[in-house]
Design goal:
By secondary structure, this protein is an alpha+beta fold. The chain contains 8 helices and 6 strands. Helix 2 crosses helix 3.
């Protein structure tokens, strides 16, 4: 089984697929995109990849996810100097997660089971006078509340509990793009399109 997904990338991704037979995200790409906050994203994406590794099929050397849209209505709009891919990806090569749960993890917050659990957690933070939950993970405050810190870190596994029933509230991740997955390439830069489309679609 497979599913159709969408992703917006820079044109160099398409170059790499044609030249090497696949695209993987390298650390240098993450650093080029995120600048001064690169270390934060590198740590986050490595965690996500290692937690996902036992759940999906991915190349052994893959280190960072490629984010994809799983609902066509939510795919990213065209932007200058980018291209859009329509991919058909095997089900065992993609992780689909609830976007809100992932957002909690991105912010180093507790991922609640439900609204009641979230309310109870926030009340616990209030009792201890903890105003910045993320500081329990990123700063020294976690040394004073190790049980709460461990509770938050353990909750991050819920990111992988399954997607939201509404597909437009989910995000997907894959760890490579290979030519046989590519169903369509949308060129937003006309000059670049003139350079590549004839060679690709005449195959």
């Amino acid at each position: 089984m497979s599913r159709i997904v969408w992703t917006r990338q820079v044109p160099q991704v398409w170059d790499e697929i044609q030249e090497t037979g696949r695209y993987l995200v390298l650390e240098e790409y993450v650093r080029a995109k995120n600048g001064e906050i690169s270390d934060y994203y590198i740590e986050l994406y490595r965690w996500f990849t290692e937690e996902a590794r036992s759940r999906v099929s991915m190349p052994e050397e893959a280190k960072f996810p490629i984010w994809v849209t799983v609902d066509e209505g939510q795919k990213l709009a065209p932007a200058p100097h980018t291209i859009g891919f329509t991919l058909e990806v095997p089900d065992d090569a993609i992780v689909i997660v609830d976007y809100d749960k992932w957002g909690y993890r991105v912010n180093h917050w507790y991922v609640p089971r439900d609204e009641a659990d979230e309310k109870a957690h926030n009340e616990e933070l209030a009792r201890y006078g903890i105003g910045n939950e993320a500081a329990l993970i990123t700063g020294e405050q976690g040394n004073f509340y190790p049980q709460i810190k461990r509770k938050i870190q353990s909750s991050w596994q819920r990111v992988f509990d399954g997607p939201n029933e509404r597909m437009d509230l989910n995000v997907g991740a894959i760890w490579q793009i290979i030519p046989e997955w590519v169903k369509d390439v949308e060129f937003y830069d006309e000059t670049y399109a003139d350079q590549w489309t004839e060679g690709y679609y005449d195959d």
